[in-house]
Structures are given as structure tokens and as C-alpha cells.
Design goal:
single chain; alpha+beta; four-stranded antiparallel beta sheet; 38% helix; globular; Dimeric_a/b-barrel; NIPSNAP
Length: 108
């Protein structure tokens, strides 16, 4: 198993729009494409309260490539993303890390 950690830093005041997009659009499309989320978090204490951090569980790099590519090219995602940004850009930058569990990890 591979865990992907993604951190989205939003433009000032745009975190609610990103969270709405995940809640009403993105997660439904992830279900359609077999993408398994493993948790979403906002920052309580840290460098920015304009961040959304989440984890996705993948079976392999090939699994990620196949499912993520299908999701990114889905016409419903392309249209929904554009609609969610009608009031302006939401995300300033995205950091993604692909992680593998250690031998002593509780999550494998």
C-alpha cells in the first residue's frame, strides 16, 4: 500500500470554497473512479489556517496513475472544477508526497 499526503494551500479566504468542492463534487467522483480517501484535516495549530491536508490510499503506483488520470480527465471534474472557480482561483499551491509504511507502522 502507498499513502499519498496532499496539502492544498488556499488563497486567502478560499478554504471554504475548496472544502465545499470536495464535499459536493470531488468525493463523489473519487467514488466513481475507485479512489479511497484516508482522512481530511484542517490546520488547528501550524503555519497556515488556509490549508487542507488529506490522505489517499493506493494499492500501487500503477493503481494511482490509472485512477488519478481517469479522475483528472473526467468531464464532470473538469466542468465542476471550472464552476467552483467562477468566483476566482481557490488554490495557491499543492504539495504531494507518496509515502510507504515502515515495518512497524500500525497502518499497512
Amino acid at each position: 500500500m502507498i499513502m499519498e499526503m496532499r496539502v492544498y494551500r488556499c488563497l486567502p479566504g478560499r478554504l471554504p470554497a475548496l472544502m465545499k468542492r470536495f464535499d459536493t463534487l470531488t468525493l463523489k467522483l473519487w467514488d466513481k473512479h475507485g479512489i479511497k480517501q484516508a482522512g481530511f484535516y484542517t490546520t488547528l495549530i501550524g503555519t497556515s489556517n488556509q490549508e487542507l491536508t488529506y490522505f489517499v490510499a493506493w494499492e500501487s503506483l500503477a493503481d494511482r496513475e490509472k485512477k488519478w488520470t481517469a479522475f483528472q480527465s473526467d468531464p464532470d471534474w473538469i466542468a465542476g472544477r471550472a464552476k467552483s472557480e467562477e468566483d476566482g482561483q481557490i488554490i495557491d499551491n499543492i504539495v504531494s508526497q507518496l509515502l510507504v509504511p515502515t515495518a512497524f507502522s500500525a497502518v499497512k
